[in-house]
Protein backbone atom coordinates (compact mmCIF):
# COMPACT_ATOMS: atom_id res chain seq x y z
CA UNK A 1 0.00 0.00 0.00
CA UNK A 2 1.51 3.39 -0.98
CA UNK A 3 2.41 5.78 1.85
CA UNK A 4 -0.15 8.39 0.73
CA UNK A 5 -2.94 5.78 0.92
CA UNK A 6 -1.88 4.89 4.47
CA UNK A 7 -1.97 8.56 5.44
CA UNK A 8 -5.42 8.98 3.83
CA UNK A 9 -6.93 5.93 5.51
CA UNK A 10 -5.49 6.82 8.93
CA UNK A 11 -6.59 10.44 8.42
CA UNK A 12 -10.10 9.15 7.63
CA UNK A 13 -10.13 7.20 10.91
CA UNK A 14 -9.11 10.32 12.84
CA UNK A 15 -11.90 12.41 11.24
CA UNK A 16 -14.41 9.63 12.00
CA UNK A 17 -13.58 9.90 15.71
CA UNK A 18 -13.67 13.72 15.55
CA UNK A 19 -17.08 13.66 13.82
CA UNK A 20 -18.58 11.18 16.28
CA UNK A 21 -17.26 13.16 19.26
CA UNK A 22 -18.44 16.50 17.80
CA UNK A 23 -21.87 15.05 16.95
CA UNK A 24 -22.26 13.70 20.47
CA UNK A 25 -21.12 17.03 21.95
CA UNK A 26 -23.63 18.98 19.83
CA UNK A 27 -26.41 16.62 20.94
CA UNK A 28 -25.45 16.88 24.62
CA UNK A 29 -24.65 20.61 24.76
CA UNK A 30 -26.82 22.36 22.14
CA UNK A 31 -26.28 26.08 21.70
CA UNK A 32 -29.06 28.52 20.78
CA UNK A 33 -27.45 29.72 17.53
CA UNK A 34 -26.62 26.19 16.34
CA UNK A 35 -22.83 26.22 16.69
CA UNK A 36 -20.08 26.78 19.22
CA UNK A 37 -18.16 30.06 19.13
CA UNK A 38 -15.49 29.80 16.41
CA UNK A 39 -16.58 26.34 15.32
CA UNK A 40 -19.01 25.04 12.71
CA UNK A 41 -22.35 23.46 13.60
CA UNK A 42 -24.16 20.40 12.30
CA UNK A 43 -23.31 21.15 8.64
CA UNK A 44 -19.58 21.27 9.45
CA UNK A 45 -19.81 18.00 11.41
CA UNK A 46 -21.72 16.41 8.49
CA UNK A 47 -18.85 17.48 6.20
CA UNK A 48 -16.27 16.04 8.60
CA UNK A 49 -18.12 12.72 8.33
CA UNK A 50 -18.80 12.70 4.57
CA UNK A 51 -15.59 14.37 3.34
CA UNK A 52 -13.03 13.78 6.11
CA UNK A 53 -14.09 10.19 6.77
CA UNK A 54 -15.98 8.67 3.80
CA UNK A 55 -14.47 10.53 0.84
CA UNK A 56 -10.93 10.30 2.22
CA UNK A 57 -11.35 6.56 2.85
CA UNK A 58 -12.61 6.12 -0.74
CA UNK A 59 -9.66 8.16 -2.09
CA UNK A 60 -7.13 6.18 -0.03
CA UNK A 61 -8.43 2.77 -1.06
CA UNK A 62 -8.91 3.75 -4.73
CA UNK A 63 -5.40 5.23 -4.93
CA UNK A 64 -4.03 1.93 -3.63
CA UNK A 65 -6.33 -0.55 -5.41
CA UNK A 66 -7.05 0.83 -8.87
CA UNK A 67 -5.18 -0.54 -11.90
CA UNK A 68 -1.57 0.64 -12.00
CA UNK A 69 -0.63 3.78 -13.95
CA UNK A 70 2.45 2.08 -15.46
CA UNK A 71 5.09 -0.49 -14.48
CA UNK A 72 7.63 2.23 -13.77
CA UNK A 73 5.23 4.49 -11.85
CA UNK A 74 2.44 2.26 -10.49
CA UNK A 75 0.59 5.12 -8.76
CA UNK A 76 1.38 7.89 -11.24
CA UNK A 77 2.73 11.26 -10.06
CA UNK A 78 2.89 10.91 -6.26
CA UNK A 79 2.64 14.68 -5.72
CA UNK A 80 -0.98 14.59 -6.94
CA UNK A 81 -1.89 12.14 -4.17
CA UNK A 82 -0.10 14.23 -1.54
CA UNK A 83 -1.73 17.40 -2.85
CA UNK A 84 -5.18 15.76 -2.57
CA UNK A 85 -4.39 14.53 0.95
CA UNK A 86 -3.15 17.94 2.11
CA UNK A 87 -5.97 19.97 0.55
CA UNK A 88 -8.71 17.58 1.71
CA UNK A 89 -7.63 17.67 5.34
CA UNK A 90 -6.94 21.40 5.28
CA UNK A 91 -10.38 21.98 3.73
CA UNK A 92 -12.20 19.86 6.32
CA UNK A 93 -10.33 21.59 9.16
CA UNK A 94 -11.07 25.03 7.69
CA UNK A 95 -14.80 24.21 7.48
CA UNK A 96 -14.83 22.89 11.03
CA UNK A 97 -12.87 25.75 12.60
CA UNK A 98 -14.23 28.54 10.40
CA UNK A 99 -17.61 26.94 9.74
CA UNK A 100 -19.44 29.38 11.92
CA UNK A 101 -18.68 32.20 9.48
CA UNK A 102 -19.55 32.23 5.75
CA UNK A 103 -15.93 33.04 4.85
CA UNK A 104 -14.76 29.83 6.59
CA UNK A 105 -17.22 27.77 4.55
CA UNK A 106 -16.14 29.41 1.29
CA UNK A 107 -12.41 29.04 2.02
CA UNK A 108 -12.87 25.43 3.20
CA UNK A 109 -15.06 24.64 0.19
CA UNK A 110 -12.51 26.16 -2.22
CA UNK A 111 -9.70 24.08 -0.74
CA UNK A 112 -11.88 20.95 -1.01
CA UNK A 113 -12.55 21.67 -4.71
CA UNK A 114 -8.75 21.80 -5.24
CA UNK A 115 -8.42 18.46 -3.44
CA UNK A 116 -11.12 16.87 -5.61
CA UNK A 117 -9.39 18.09 -8.80
CA UNK A 118 -6.04 16.67 -7.61
CA UNK A 119 -7.40 13.21 -6.76
CA UNK A 120 -9.42 13.03 -9.98
CA UNK A 121 -6.26 13.88 -11.98
CA UNK A 122 -4.43 11.08 -10.10
CA UNK A 123 -7.13 8.42 -10.49
CA UNK A 124 -8.75 9.18 -13.88
CA UNK A 125 -5.95 7.73 -16.08
CA UNK A 126 -6.03 4.54 -13.97
CA UNK A 127 -9.74 3.89 -14.74
CA UNK A 128 -9.23 1.79 -17.84
CA UNK A 129 -11.49 -0.64 -19.70
CA UNK A 130 -9.94 -4.08 -20.07
CA UNK B 1 -11.89 -3.19 -15.33
CA UNK B 2 -15.21 -3.87 -17.14
CA UNK B 3 -16.67 -1.14 -19.36
CA UNK B 4 -19.69 -0.51 -17.09
CA UNK B 5 -17.48 -0.16 -13.99
CA UNK B 6 -15.11 2.22 -15.76
CA UNK B 7 -17.99 4.42 -16.92
CA UNK B 8 -19.66 4.40 -13.51
CA UNK B 9 -16.40 5.46 -11.84
CA UNK B 10 -15.76 8.16 -14.46
CA UNK B 11 -19.30 9.56 -14.06
CA UNK B 12 -18.87 9.39 -10.25
CA UNK B 13 -15.64 11.45 -10.50
CA UNK B 14 -17.45 13.94 -12.76
CA UNK B 15 -20.26 14.21 -10.18
CA UNK B 16 -17.62 14.72 -7.48
CA UNK B 17 -16.07 17.72 -9.27
CA UNK B 18 -19.37 19.35 -10.27
CA UNK B 19 -20.86 18.57 -6.84
CA UNK B 20 -17.92 20.14 -5.00
CA UNK B 21 -18.23 23.29 -7.14
CA UNK B 22 -22.01 23.37 -6.47
CA UNK B 23 -21.25 23.11 -2.73
CA UNK B 24 -18.82 26.01 -2.97
CA UNK B 25 -21.47 28.07 -4.80
CA UNK B 26 -24.07 27.17 -2.17
CA UNK B 27 -21.71 28.32 0.60
CA UNK B 28 -21.11 31.55 -1.33
CA UNK B 29 -24.80 32.41 -1.22
CA UNK B 30 -25.91 31.10 -4.62
CA UNK B 31 -29.60 30.15 -5.13
CA UNK B 32 -31.01 27.46 -2.83
CA UNK B 33 -31.14 24.74 -5.51
CA UNK B 34 -27.31 24.60 -5.64
CA UNK B 35 -27.28 23.13 -2.12
CA UNK B 36 -29.74 20.38 -3.07
CA UNK B 37 -27.89 19.67 -6.33
CA UNK B 38 -24.67 19.49 -4.27
CA UNK B 39 -26.22 16.83 -2.00
CA UNK B 40 -27.51 14.68 -4.87
CA UNK B 41 -24.29 14.90 -6.89
CA UNK B 42 -22.16 13.99 -3.86
CA UNK B 43 -24.21 11.20 -2.23
CA UNK B 44 -25.87 9.13 -5.01
CA UNK B 45 -23.84 10.63 -7.88
CA UNK B 46 -20.39 10.20 -6.36
CA UNK B 47 -20.41 7.98 -3.27
CA UNK B 48 -23.05 5.38 -4.17
CA UNK B 49 -22.04 5.21 -7.83
CA UNK B 50 -18.29 5.00 -7.09
CA UNK B 51 -18.89 2.20 -4.54
CA UNK B 52 -21.22 0.19 -6.80
CA UNK B 53 -18.94 0.67 -9.83
CA UNK B 54 -15.94 -0.56 -7.85
CA UNK B 55 -17.97 -3.47 -6.45
CA UNK B 56 -19.00 -4.51 -9.98
CA UNK B 57 -15.31 -4.60 -10.89
CA UNK B 58 -13.86 -6.27 -7.83
CA UNK B 59 -16.43 -8.73 -6.43
CA UNK B 60 -15.78 -12.43 -7.19
CA UNK B 61 -16.63 -13.38 -10.78
CA UNK B 62 -16.49 -17.15 -10.46
CA UNK B 63 -19.95 -18.62 -11.00
CA UNK B 64 -21.15 -15.98 -13.45
CA UNK B 65 -21.43 -12.24 -13.81
CA UNK B 66 -24.71 -10.48 -14.53
CA UNK B 67 -24.32 -7.41 -16.78
CA UNK B 68 -24.73 -4.10 -14.96
CA UNK B 69 -24.58 -1.65 -17.88
CA UNK B 70 -28.38 -1.32 -18.18
CA UNK B 71 -28.79 -0.83 -14.44
CA UNK B 72 -26.07 1.83 -14.40
CA UNK B 73 -27.77 3.63 -17.30
CA UNK B 74 -31.14 3.63 -15.49
CA UNK B 75 -29.48 4.89 -12.29
CA UNK B 76 -27.83 7.78 -14.14
CA UNK B 77 -30.98 8.68 -16.09
CA UNK B 78 -32.77 8.94 -12.73
CA UNK B 79 -29.96 11.01 -11.26
CA UNK B 80 -29.91 13.35 -14.26
CA UNK B 81 -33.69 13.77 -14.17
CA UNK B 82 -33.61 14.51 -10.42
CA UNK B 83 -30.92 17.17 -10.81
CA UNK B 84 -32.54 18.76 -13.87
CA UNK B 85 -35.86 18.91 -12.02
CA UNK B 86 -34.20 20.56 -9.01
CA UNK B 87 -32.63 23.24 -11.21
CA UNK B 88 -35.97 23.86 -12.95
CA UNK B 89 -37.96 24.01 -9.72
CA UNK B 90 -38.67 20.46 -8.57
CA UNK B 91 -42.16 19.02 -8.78
CA UNK B 92 -43.28 15.68 -10.19
CA UNK B 93 -40.20 15.28 -12.41
CA UNK B 94 -37.99 15.19 -9.29
CA UNK B 95 -40.12 12.43 -7.76
CA UNK B 96 -40.02 10.45 -11.02
CA UNK B 97 -36.24 10.95 -11.19
CA UNK B 98 -35.80 9.62 -7.67
CA UNK B 99 -37.99 6.59 -8.35
CA UNK B 100 -36.00 5.81 -11.54
CA UNK B 101 -32.73 6.25 -9.60
CA UNK B 102 -33.90 3.85 -6.87
CA UNK B 103 -34.97 1.33 -9.55
CA UNK B 104 -31.49 1.53 -11.10
CA UNK B 105 -29.83 1.07 -7.70
CA UNK B 106 -32.09 -1.92 -6.92
CA UNK B 107 -31.24 -3.47 -10.31
CA UNK B 108 -27.51 -2.96 -9.59
CA UNK B 109 -27.82 -4.52 -6.14
CA UNK B 110 -29.75 -7.47 -7.64
CA UNK B 111 -26.99 -8.01 -10.21
CA UNK B 112 -24.21 -7.86 -7.61
CA UNK B 113 -25.98 -9.85 -4.86
CA UNK B 114 -25.08 -13.38 -6.13
CA UNK B 115 -21.41 -12.39 -6.38
CA UNK B 116 -21.18 -11.82 -2.63
CA UNK B 117 -20.37 -15.33 -1.49
CA UNK B 118 -17.89 -17.55 0.26
CA UNK B 119 -14.86 -18.52 -1.75
CA UNK B 120 -13.63 -22.03 -1.01
CA UNK B 121 -9.84 -22.10 -1.33
CA UNK B 122 -8.43 -24.83 -3.58
CA UNK B 123 -6.43 -27.31 -1.53
CA UNK B 124 -3.51 -29.03 -3.22
CA UNK B 125 -2.59 -32.48 -1.97
The N- to C-terminal Cα distance of chain B equals 34 Å
Could you tell me the strand content of chain B as a percent range? under 5%
Q: In total, how many beta strands of chain B?
A: 0
Order of helices and strands of chain B: HHHH
Structural class of chain B: mainly alpha
SS content category of chain A = mainly alpha
Q: Mean pLDDT of chain B, as a whole number?
A: 92
Percent range for β-strand residues of chain A: under 5%
In whole angstroms, the N-to-C terminal distance of chain A is 23 Å
Low-confidence stretches of chain B: none
The description of the largest β-sheet of chain B is: none
Tally of helical segments of chain B = 4
Sum up the overall morphology of chain A in one term: elongated
Q: Which blocks of ≥5 consecutive residues of chain A have pLDDT under 50?
A: none
Choose one word for the global shape of chain B: elongated
Largest interface: A-B, 24 and 24 residues
Secondary-structure topology with pairs:
The complex is a heterodimer of chains A (130) and B (125).
Chain A: H1 3-28, H2 42-65, H3 78-98, H4 102-123
Helix pairs in contact in A: 1-2, 1-3, 2-3, 2-4, 3-4
Chain B: H1 3-27, H2 33-58, H3 69-88, H4 92-112
In short:
The complex is a heterodimer of chains A (130) and B (125). Chain A is an all-alpha fold.
Write a structural description:
The complex is a heterodimer of chains A (130) and B (125). By secondary structure, chain A is an all-alpha fold. Chain A has four helices and no strands. Chain A is elongated, with a radius of gyration of 16 Å. With 125 residues, chain B is an all-alpha fold. In chain B, 74% of the residues lie in helices and 0% in strands. Chain B is built from four helices and no strands. The longest helix of chain B is centred in the middle third of the chain and has 26 residues, at 33-58. Chain B is elongated and about 70 Å long. The two termini of chain B are 34 Å apart. Chains A and B meet through helix 2 and helix 4 of A and helix 1 and helix 2 of B.
